[in-house]
Amino acid sequence: MARFNYLELPVRDVPVTKAFYASAFGWTFTDFGPDYAATMTGDTDIGLNGDSSQSTAQLLPVIEVDDLEAAEAAVQAAGGTITLPIFAFPGGRRFHFRDPAGHELAAMQPDAHA
Q: Which of 59, 60, 88, 103 is most buried, with most CB under 10 Å away?
């Protein structure tokens, strides 16, 4: 069953935001380059995305799926709009979409070895 496994926050300054959450909640982050950091607890993790080319207007809930291409086709068939086509990132692949109510979400498939 598809499930929420990630929440991505669009940020302007990854180091400042990372320091805030570390200080406020004791969270530790793994850096994935200068524009991305994430918690790695295995529960519902938090990502800080400072890449303006992937920036969303709001928080980005991410749904984990078993078959990314099938999920993309199902989203489109159900009336969703793809806002960012499938792309790879450290740990898997994902795409962004907008539901009929205008909410932007993402679907991701983890790498087999992740």
A: 60
Give me the sign of the Cα torsion angle 109, 103, 73, 86. Answer: negative
How does DSSP classify residue 102? Answer: S
What is the H or E stretch that residue 114 is in?
Answer: none
Cβ count within 10 A of residue 61 = 15
* Spacing of C-alpha 99 from chain mean position: 16
**Per-residue pLDDT tens listing for the chain (114 residues):** 788 889 999 998 999 999 989 988 789 999 999 999 999 988 889 999 999 988 888 889 999 999 999 999 999 999 899 999 999 998 999 999 999 878 899 999 999 865
Lay out the sheet containing 92-98: strands in order across. Answer: 30-31, 36-38, 45-49, 3-10, 60-64, 104-110, 92-98, 81-89
d(CA 48, CA 35): 8
